[in-house]
Amino acid sequence: MSVFHIHIAYSGAYEDQYQRGVSYLFGMAMIYLIYRRPVVKGPWGYVIVGVTFLLAVTSTGFPALWDWNYFQDRLYYVDPLRPIDFFFGITIILLTLEAARRTINNALPLISLFFVVYSWDWVGPYFPWEMAHKGASFMHVIDHQYMTYDGIWTTPMNVFSVYIFLFILFGAFLERMGASEFYVNLSMAVTGHLRGGPAKAAIFASAMTGTIMGSTNANVVTTGSFTIPMMKRTGFPPETGAGIETAASTGGQIMPPVMGASAFLIVEFTGISYWDIVRVSIIPAALYFFSVYALVHFESRKLGLVGLPKDQVPRVGPIMKEGWFYLRPPIIIIVVLMTGRPVPYAGLYGIGSVIILAALKGGLVLLKKAREEGVTASELVHALLGGVWNIVEAMEHGARNSLPIAAAVGTVGLIMGALFQSGLGLKFASMVTSLAGGSLLLGIFLVGVASFVLGMGLPTSAAYIVLSVMAVPAMLELGEPVGLTLMAAHLIVFWYSLDSCFTPPVCVPAYTAAGIAGANPSKAAWSALMMAKGMYVMPLMFAFTPILALNRPMAIAETAVAAVFGFTALAQMMIGHSYFPLSTPVRVILGVAAALLFWPKIVLLGVVLPGVMLHATGALILGGVFLIQRKRLAVEGEPAPAVLETA
After folding, report:
1. Are the beta carbons of 165 and 207 closer than 8 angstroms?
2. Counting beta carbons within 10 angstroms of the beta carbon of residue 367, is it exposed (0 to 12), middle (13 to 18) or buried (19 or more)?
3. How far apart are CA 184 and CA 274, in angstroms?
4. How far apart are alpha carbons 630 and 73 in whole angstroms?
5. DSSP string, 521-571
6. Looking at residues 42-55, what average pLDDT do you find?
7. Res 509 pLDDT > 90
8. For labeling, which of 202, 228, 459, 542 is most exposed (least CB within 10 Å)?
9. Could you give the angle at the alpha carbon of 629 between the alpha carbons of 626 and 632, nearest 5°?
10. What is the pairing mode between strands 602-604 and 607-609?
11. CA distance 495 to 464
12. In this predicted structure, what is the pLDDT of residue 38?
């Protein structure tokens, strides 16, 4: 599977039906080989497993490999389906739903099944309000979902085969090389001595790990296994530690250059170059991580925590000396993107750089040993074979890690097919526009509510796909008076789709972090929701501020500086603590200051108050609270620190 996708990136894409069919064939075959769940005990259970596997292989491979000319020449909706087409169409829909259930959750296939049934003419006309539609015959539903490019084989499947798999593979190579451990150690060395150091290390480690993974759950497992126990040891409650790790790891999906699967979908849906998306995302990602950092800092002060003792904090110099080369592959990807080369080439260069750096590292180790002790021929052969085996295992891990995404894009393809066939996408856009009453702010709020509902059942990429089809047209219409761009609309939907990672009651990464922390899952999820508040603020800035306008550097700088102060004020208001506890009136004042620091302009009695004036006013309010707190600190002294638990 890995070799096939590397070949796609190196030689260029195949014909769409062939490429998408073979890519999905690999995914479905591996899902039913790896996620084996016999429905009955005994030999018959494994017979059923084998038959299911064969059906998965034949139904996904049939259109791409076995009957190529027929699929190319037939006229969909005109030429009737053959019995074998009908059989395999029903089979692949059912097996796709089952693959999503096995690899992701029960909610996603149920939602997808609802949309498929909704597009049927026996069901569609009986829905209330604007949801009702004429519907399509059962044969046309199967035709649309299986025989055209608007169902299972739609855009997300193409994005998976061209972009997503390659960067998942890049992350697997870098992780196999040991980069995650280096990122965690470096983050601990930089921030471990600070107040609440392990929590701040989790933020930096998740940001760096996110540049290569783009998966919140994988980020939680990789960095959280180390940072969460350290947070608990320094005095953070388990639920708070799990919430901090979840919020930080969620930011990994917005951290360039990888940014998770949804960023590649933005490229495909908008036609905007990936490098442009990376460029505009750097400052918003940094601001989001700062928002989490500010909340962690004031929470640490509230709890009276201190940093780790110096003897428990690793030194930056030795860590950088040992692992500086781990920083090179992400930089190489950015450089390749800057040159204008295709995105798949950037992934190939990244993978190639990891292999070369790993070979150089192994060669230096052998050279040092040869000078000191000598190296035998058998040791040299063993080292070479070990390097080759590492490449094989990295390719295996990359393919395994891609399986939930493969299942997700196939299942979401069914949803997209139903949205197109029933016309619900356009109806939803008109409903949002009507309910918003011409207000872009209210429209964004409605999109946020929709993302919350979808996030209870769909992973990030699936929620983004559905919302982008239904909500982006409405936002573009509502945002026309303020000049909302296509990129800004898609980034708003993308960021809101991330709330599935931390919003109760369904948030797998938060529950994963709770398991590592030994915390109450619900409390950990609510803690994550609080720590990730920046994820709701930044989309509003995309719509109403020039934070994405790269052609206006001074405006971006002014907006970013104001946002830093705004997140500082917001964090103090939410935590209720600065140097000392804050009263309710002071917290309200800080909330007003935060709103002024974020908002671009206000029309008051016919007079337009520009953003600079609002930001200056908010900064003065924040500065006044700061000076009062500092004066009290000078009089009363620093509060007593919390006592560290024993290791």
Report:
1. no
2. exposed
3. 28
4. 76
5. HHHHHHHHHHHTTHHHHHHHHHHHSSTT-TT-HHHHHHHHHHHHHHHHHHH
6. 74
7. no
8. 542
9. 150
10. antiparallel
11. 9
12. 58
Residues near 202 by Cβ (< 8 Å), separated by ≥ 6? Answer: 187, 223, 224, 227, 228, 231, 244, 245, 248
644 pLDDT more than 50 = no
CA distances from 256 to 202, 279, 334, 375 (A): 18, 8, 8, 42
Burial of 500 (0-12, 13-18, 19+ CB in 10 A): buried
Q: Which of 429, 453, 456, 457 is nearest to 443 (CA)?
A: 429
- Tell me whether the omega of the peptide bond preceding residue 109 falls within 30 degrees of 0, making it cis: no
Residue type, position 12, single letter: G
* Pick from 26-30, 175-179, 560-564: least confident: 175-179
Strand pairing partners for 604? Answer: 607
pLDDT digits (tens, 9 = 90+) for 466-481: 888 888 999 999 988 8
The amino acid present at 480, given as its one-letter code, is E
Asked whether the bond before 505 is cis by omega within 30 degrees of 0, the reply is: yes
Residue located via tokens 């060669």:
363
Question: How far is the C-alpha of 183 from the C-alpha of 274, rounded, in Å?
Answer: 25
Q: How far is CA 127 from CA 107, 122, 138, 471, in A?
A: 21, 11, 17, 21
**Angstrom distances, CA of residue 138 to CA of 80, 121, 122, 600, 617:** 12, 8, 9, 51, 62
Query: For residue 281, what are its two tokens?
Result: 């995302």
Q: Which residue has the tokens 């920046």?
A: 534
In contact, 31 and 102? CB cutoff 8 Å:
yes
Task: Let me know the angle formed at the C-alpha of 299 by 296 and 303, rounded to the nearest 5 degrees.
Answer: 135
CB count within 10 Å of CB 413 equals 27
Residue 80's Cα: distance from chain center in Å? 41
Which residue, 230, 215, 135, is CA-closest to 175? 215
Task: Give residues with Cβ within 8 angstroms of 410, minimum separation 6.
Answer: 24, 27, 28, 96, 99, 100, 152, 157
N residues, the chain: 647
Centroid of chain to Cα 271: 20
Lookup result for tokens 């700062």: 290
**pLDDT for 555 beyond 50:** yes
- How wide is the angle at C-alpha 85 spanned by C-alphas 84 and 88, nearest 5°? 80
pLDDT at res. 505: 72
Query: What are 214-231's pLDDT values in tens digits?
Result: 678 778 888 888 888 888
What is the distance of C-alpha 195 from the center of its chain? Answer: 28
Per 3-state DSSP, what percentage of the chain is helix, strand, and coil (rounded to 5)? 75, 0, 20
Report yes or no: 291 and 252 within 8 Å, Cβ to Cβ: no
Q: 358 is written with which tokens?
A: 């790993």
Q: Compute the distance between CA of residue 192 and CA of residue 391 in angstroms, rounded to an integer.
A: 33
Condensed to tens digits (0 to 9), the pLDDT of residues 389-424 reads 999 999 999 999 899 989 999 999 999 999 888 888
Token digits of residue 554: 């001074």
The distance in angstroms from the start CA to the end CA of the chain is 45
Question: φ and ψ at 181, to 5 degrees?
Answer: -65, -40
Alpha-carbon distance of 497 to 259, in angstroms, equals 13
